[in-house]
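All the exercises in this workshop are built on plain-text protein records. Instead of coordinates, the fold is spelled out as a row of discrete tokens. Once this layout is familiar, the rest of the handout is easier to follow. The record below serves as our worked example for the rest of this section.
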Amino acid sequence: MSGLVSDLVSDVRRGLGARTGRSPLSEARAVVEEAGAVVEDVATGLLGARTVAWTTTLRRRLTLTDTLAVLGSVVVAVLLTTTGVLHLGGSTTPVVQVGVGAGVAAAWLLGLAVCRTRDRRLMGEGPREYQRVFEATWWLFAAVAVFSYVFGIAEPRGIVLVALPLGLVWLLVGRYAWRQWLHRRRAEGVCTRTVLAVGHAEQVARLVGEFNGNDRSGYVVVGACVPGAVEGQRVRGVPVLGDVAAAGAIALREGAECVAVSGSDAVTADAVRRLGWDLERSSIDLMLTTELTDVAGPRLTITPAQGVSLVHVDAPRFSGPKYAVKTALDVVGALVALLLLLPVLLAVTVVVACSGRGGVIFRQERVGRNGETFSMLKFRTMRSGAEFEVADLADLSEGAGPLFKMREDPRVTRVGRFLRRYSIDELPQLVNVLRGEMSLVGPRPPLPSEVTAYGVAAQRRLLVKPGLTGLWQVGGRSDLSWDESVRLDVYYVENWTPFVDLLLIAKTARAIVVGEGAY
């Protein structure tokens, strides 16, 4: 069944609907009917039908796992308080604690609903979905704290102290699990939303490349409306179904789930307004695309001015309270990590010392914030004097740009290969973090020779401290091209938030465990 769905969506993406004179969505329905299959994610021609099918199912599953996470954490908290294991004042009688626990659980579930943590537009997105769960939990904590203080009631304290952190972890794990499920489904060509792209052919082509070339986007462009449409016209394999002026009628007729409008002289403000009127009684989403790439949502603010909607883009800031928070997180995180990993560090020290000549710790000059150099620490993974052999191996480099990388570097020891695969060799950099030379999360720390080859964009990496991990680490590590690594680092530099750091640290753990892109 999954193979049928995958093939079907591939056909839709190539615009095979034109071969029979029918629209892509109608052709998709016909193929499924001919196969005698009923697939929940295939358009039926009814407005929003396919989106309703999988989003409703996923929302129910999220509601179930959220409820289990909240109730489970509250039950654990009630058991600890009623048995006297945890007592922060107030009555410990079961009736009182169960009543308080029920109130906390109900308020928590209500908060998750009010904060729209299961909004279909967030499904599979990740960061914003997790952030809303954080916000709902934080507001509950604040509400309970104020309630306890104002009314002098101590009973909720113990329950909140245990239930909130425990429940938050379970909530996030549940969201992550369903997100991975959704990504697998989308890789099979299902659980996506059909898009009618509106704008000039060049803009439509860009949307097709961004959406149809990325399984995780959740969108598939299956039709287009361009100025001066010609019968049989295609844009990157997607059939042109009509002119821009007819976009609303075409979307309604074909059962598209989204209409994505690219701003241009062909799509005026009046045209967008009329398109919104055409779609207002349907379940079709109207989306406006912009040319603002690599700018995170928190930096964008829309404000009206004399009937004109202005998109304000906040300038990146590299100092102030936000970075004070980052420094505090770095120090606390590095100290905790060093304490927890002390047995591992000692074991690796012994193994490296026995692996051959040379010191246990390898020191290398790297460039940090504002171009200042520092001595970066790593466990030795190469034979002694390996840094002097780079020139002899330069022609064999597989790294992009000024980076020197080799998958089968002859200088790496057998022990070093294992340490590199799981990034264990980088653990001494926690000391660099404590010294204030590095951050837990940031751009990749470059060599001075690499910095001399930096362009204008790459120079922005030096506006913040380099990191032990970062977008480059979870985005492919050594498998990334030079341009990709620069783009990821610059995006991080300009759009950093504490939540992004926490998310990247969690993603790094997965990338290290599976050894993605490490050599």
DSSP finds 19 helices and twelve strands in the chain. The first strand starts at residue 193 and ends at 198. The chain has three domains: 49-186, 191-291, 321-514. Residues 49-82 form the longest helix (34 residues).
